[in-house]
Every structure is written in C-alpha cells, then in structure tokens.
C-alpha cells in the first residue's frame, strides 16, 4: 500500500492545528486553598508579597562575628545566643561573638558566620585562629531566593509538586485557578461487559474506560464516566444529549469506523457538526472530532491501543489549551538507533510502541512485539512511541528512527 492508497486521510499536524485553532480556553476561575491546587492552572500571575528569606539568616551552626574582632588572636567571649525563631537581643560588646544556629536571624553588625567545626572553645573564650573569614560568609541575605514583588509563576502554569511548596514559602494560602475542563466519556459496543461479570459467547470486557479515565485526570481534567452504551442509536443519542449537559468535552470510544453498528458519526452529524474524520495515523485512523451544541466531541476508535493512543496524541494538546495551560509542551522526539526491525507500509504516520534504552550514550529502541491495535500489552510494555514518518516503509535493525518519550501523564 502506498500513499496513493490512502487518499483523503488528513495529516496529524493538520488535525492538531484544526483542533487547537477552534478550541478557546475555559475562562471560569475558582479560588482554592493551596494544598488543593495541585494540577490546576494558575489564572493570574503570582508575585511575591515578601522577601524570601524575610531577613538575613545563618546558613550554618556556628558563631556570628564582626570581622574587625578577628584581627587579633584574642579569644572572643560569647555575648549571647541566636536560634531559629529566637533572635539575639541585647548588647554585643566589641571583642565578643554570638553563638548562632542555622536559620537564626543575623545580629545587627555581624559580618560573617564561622562554622562551629572551625573554632576551638577554651576557658578564655572562642578561638578563631585557623579561620579564613570572608565578608558575608555563611550568611543568606534577605531576598536571596525571591525578591519582594518578583514574578514567581505566570498565569497559565500548571501547578506541580515543585510549585506548591514554593508558593507556601511566600505565605500565599489561596490561589486563583481556572476551573478544570469537564470531560464526559463512555464506551460503545454490544459486546462490552463490565468487569466482575461473566462473559457470554462473543463478549469482551470494556477496558477502554480504564485507560481514558486516568489519562484524562493526569491531563488535568475532571473525568465523568458514563459507562457502557450498547450499539443502539436511541440510547446513544440520549447519552450524547446528557453528556453535553454535564461536560465541556464528550469523548466516546468505538463506533466511529465503517461497520454496520458504527453509529457515532451519524449521531454527531445529526446533533452537531463533524469537524474531521479519518486521519493518516496508525493505529487510530477512524478518529473523529467535532462539535455538539453544548460541547466539543472526540470520537476515539474502539480498538484499545487506538483509543488510548489517539487520546494521548490528539486529544491531550486540545485539553491543555482548553485548560488554559499555556506552558504545555508536546512530548519530545529524539533520534534512536533500532535494535529490532519495524514493519510498516507507507501511507500513514505510525506510532509503534517501543522500549528505549541508552547504550554508550546513544538512544536505542526495540519493538514491544505484537503491534496490533487490539493488543494492549504493547502499550503496557512500552516506554516510548516509535514515530515512523508517513512515507516511510519498513525499518531494518541499525536504522535511525524518531522516538517520542512518554510524558508524565503516562505514569502514576
Ligand atoms: P469499533 O470501533 O466499535 O468497531 O471497535 C473496534 C474493536 O475494538 C472491536 O474489536 C471492539 O470489540 C473493540 N472495542 C471497542 N470498544 C472497546 C472497549 N471499550 N474495550 C475493549 N475493546 C473495545
Ligand atoms: Mg463497536
């Protein structure tokens, strides 16, 4: 099969561009306690209301000194103590030092903190003879980490476990974030049975919803599971109507192909508008995108690898835009040398499942084996996609291919 055998298939890049062009970010915001804001997208720039640290403090347990007092070898008396949370108060006579702990406020007049390991304690006082003291040594200046008013995170940043404690250091208890996109999803197919039931002849378990839900949640969406809907036009229509009331986006799996029980596309045409259908991607060709009266629509193919993969490759960027996550970046692609052969016909861009490793500083990749769109084990074993260009044919061992490393949404 050559390119000319797949006329009319839309290129992935064109499909992505169309979706991104049409989607506009959700504007509704909410204010959340910081501890509940993980995974949400900031709806405003965050500027620091304080200096961090708020005061110059000691980086070591040791002795606060005035460098002028270290000119002679005379031992220094200890004038008092400074602990974290309990600053030194009182007189600090010339010729004395202050015992100081990590995090304690630097006493006024102090030039340096000398580590306790570098001094000797004698009956006559603290001896600093072997110390090479430099001005401001072991002192963390006020605002060393973050200046008052500094932009710490921009609107559109999705809050990670690294951001939350940084915001906490600023004393910010609540943040204004965009509401998460609501995504309703359901599986279609007379053959699909829920887990925990016995399969009749011809039945299979519905596994797709078990991949769609965690991916949507990892993308930063509220996932609304509407269950399994049989291949019955009336029930499908009723579910579409209900789903669009509940959500910003409706996602289905199955029923978008050209079989006699594939009703999804016809119902979409009746209730809304088909943006595009059928892409030059393998697996995942029958992917459909469009608009219902009250929601966006993405129709994933039923085959388990196709459904999961198109959700990740095609729907994820669109949901990032909808969520206002303006810093979102597509997963990175890097060259790797093949350690196994990959079968392919020209015509569509292949997303084969691969396992990459690094040998002598060079990325290498091998196939996960059976690449059937129904064989989900290939997805479970993989740690990357092997993205084979549309016009490319089969790949031999030792050739260079592009691999796309999974982003964090593929992990727990
Ligand atoms: P369809 O797109 O509805 O023609 O389905 C294509 C293939 O995927 C068929 O073999 C279906 O049985 C299978 N399939 C569809 N939906 C699911 C699902 N939710 N879980 C597992 N397999 C499915
Ligand atoms: Mg079906």
Set down the secondary structure blueprint.
Blueprint: H1 12-22, E1 29-33, E2 46-47, E3 57-58, E4 62-65, E5 77-82, E6 96-100, E7 112-115, E8 120-122, E9 125-127, E10 139-140, E11 151-153, H2 163-169, E12 174-178, E13 182-188, E14 192-193, E15 204-205, H3 208-218, E16 222-229, H4 233-246, E17 249-253, H5 264-271, E18 272-277, E19 281-282, E20 288-292, E21 296-300, H6 304-322, E22 333-338, E23 349-359, E24 362-367, H7 377-381, E25 384-388, E26 400-405
Parallel strand pairs: 5-6, 13-16, 13-17, 14-15, 17-21, 19-23, 22-24
Antiparallel strand pairs: 1-12, 2-11, 3-10, 4-6, 4-7, 8-9, 18-20, 20-21, 22-26, 23-24, 23-25, 25-26
Bound molecules: adenosine monophosphate (AMP) and magnesium ion.
Magnesium ion (MG) binds at residues 188-189, 254-255, 261, 302.
Short description:
The protein is of the alpha/beta class and 412 residues long. It contains seven helices and 26 strands. The protein has four domains: 3-28 and 179-322, 3-Layer(aba) Sandwich (Molybdenum Cofactor Biosythetic Enzyme, Chain A), CATH 3.40.980.10; 31-52 and 147-178, Molybdopterin biosynthesis moea protein, domain 2 (Alpha-Beta Complex), CATH 3.90.105; 57-140, Molybdopterin biosynthesis moea protein, domain 3 (Molybdopterin biosynthesis moeA protein, domain 3); 333-410, Beta-clip, CATH 2.40.340.
């Amino acid at each position: 099969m050559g390119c000319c055998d797949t006329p009319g298939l839309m290129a992935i890049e064109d499909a992505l561009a169309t979706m991104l062009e049409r989607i506009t970010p959700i504007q509704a915001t909410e204010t959340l306690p910081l501890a509940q804001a993980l995974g949400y997208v900031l709806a405003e720039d965050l500027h620091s209301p304080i200096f961090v640290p708020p005061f110059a403090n000691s980086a070591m347990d040791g002795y606060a000194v005035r460098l002028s007092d270290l000119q002679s070898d005379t031992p220094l008396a200890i004038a008092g103590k400074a602990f974290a949370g309990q600053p030194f108060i009182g007189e600090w006579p010339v010729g004395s030092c202050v015992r100081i702990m990590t995090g304690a406020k630097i006493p006024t007049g102090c030039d340096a903190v000398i580590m306790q390991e570098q001094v000797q304690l004698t009956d006559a006082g603290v001896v600093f003879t072997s110390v090479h003291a430099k001005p401001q040594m072991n002192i963390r200046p006020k605002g060393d980490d973050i200046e008052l008013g500094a932009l710490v995170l921009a609107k559109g940043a999705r809050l990670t476990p690294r951001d939350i404690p940084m915001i906490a250091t600023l004393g910010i208890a609540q943040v204004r974030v965009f509401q998460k996109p609501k995504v309703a999803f359901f599986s279609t197919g007379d053959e699909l049975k829920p887990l925990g039931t016995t399969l009749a002849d011809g039945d299979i378990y519905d596994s797709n919803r078990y991949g769609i839900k965690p991916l949507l949640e990892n993308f930063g969406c509220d996932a609304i599971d509407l269950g399994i809907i049989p291949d019955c036009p009336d029930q499908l229509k009723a579910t579409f109507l209900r789903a669009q009331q509940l959500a910003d986006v409706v996602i289905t799996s199955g029923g978008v192909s050209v079989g006699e029980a594939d009703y999804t596309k016809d119902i979409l045409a009746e209730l809304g508008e088909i943006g595009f259908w059928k892409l030059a991607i393998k697996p995942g060709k029958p992917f459909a995108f469009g608009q219902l009266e009250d929601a966006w629509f993405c129709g994933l193919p039923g085959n388990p690898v196709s459904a999961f993969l198109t959700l990740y490759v095609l729907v994820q960027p669109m949901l990032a835009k909808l969520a206002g996550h303006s810093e979102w970046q597509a997963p990175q692609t890097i060259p790797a040398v093949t350690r196994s052969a990959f079968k392919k016909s020209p015509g569509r861009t292949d997303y084969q499942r691969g396992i990459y490793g690094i040998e002598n500083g060079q990325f290498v990749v091998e196939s996960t084996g059976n690449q059937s769109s129904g064989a989900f084990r290939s997805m479970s074993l993989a740690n990357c996609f092997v993205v084979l260009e549309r016009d490319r044919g089969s790949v031999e061992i030792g050739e260079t291919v592009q691999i796309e490393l999974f982003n964090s949404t593929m992990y727990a």
